[in-house]
TrEMBL record:
The keyword NAD applies. Pfam families: FMN_red (PF03358). This is NAD(P)H dehydrogenase (quinone). It comes from the Eukaryota. InterPro entries: Flavoprotein-like_sf (IPR029039), FMN_Rdtase-like_dom (IPR005025), NAD(P)H-dep_reductase (IPR050712). One of its GO terms (molecular function) is FMN binding. GO terms for cellular component: cytosol. Belongs to the SsuE family. Residues 2-149 form the NADPH-dependent FMN reductase-like domain. It catalyses: a quinone + NADPH + H(+) = a quinol + NADP(+); a quinone + NADH + H(+) = a quinol + NAD(+).
Amino acid sequence: MIKVVAICGSLRKASTNRGLIRSAIQLCNDGSIGGMQIEYVDISPLPFLNTDLERDGTFPPPVEAFRRKVRGADSFLFASPEYNYSLTGPLKNAIDWASRAPNVWADKPAAIVSSGGGFGGGRSQYHLRQVGVYLDLHFINKPELFVKEFEPPQKFDSEGNLIDPETTDRLRNVLLSLQAFTYRLQSKS
Ligand code: FNR
C-alpha cells in the first residue's frame, strides 16, 4: 500500500484544489485505484517560518506534526492554485518548514495538480517543480493536469467539489502515474 500525503496550497473552505484532493481520496476509497491511500494534511496550523522558533533541532508542535507526516509518506500529491503567477504563500511556507535540516522531502516522488484561472494554475506548477530541484523531490512529468475552473463544462460545485467526469478521469491518470513512479523509485532504493 502506497501512503500518499496530499497538501493543498489554498486554505479556502470551498477551495477547488481541496476539491481535487477530495476527489483523489474518493478514487482510492471506491476501488477505482487500488494499493494507494491518500491522507489530506492541513497546512493552516503552521506558523510563518521563523528560524527563531527552532530550538536545538526541534520545531513548534504543529511543525513537528507536519514534518512527521511528510517523513512517513511514500509520496505526495500537491494541489494548489497560482497566486500572482507562482506558488501560494501557505504552500511555500509548508515546504520551507519541512526542508529544514534534515530535509524530509528528499528522494520522494510527487505529483502536482492545480485549478485556477486562464492557465489552470500551470505557472505555479512550474515554480513548484523548480523548488523540488533543490529539495530532491522528484515530480512525475506526465500527465499534467491544469483545471481551468471557469471554462465550460462546469468543473466544481459551489463547495469546491469536483463534478466533471472527464477531469476526474484525468486526475485518476495522474494518480496511476504517481503510483507507478513511486514503485519504480522504491524498487531502486
Ligand atoms: C489569484 N488567482 C490567480 N489565478 C490565476 O490563474 N493566476 C494568478 O496569478 C492568480 N493570482 C491570484 C492571487 C491571489 C492573491 C488570489 C487570492 C487569487 C485566482 C486563483 O487561482 C483562483 O481563485 C483559484 O480558484 C483559487 O484556488 P482555490 O482556492 O479554489 O483552490
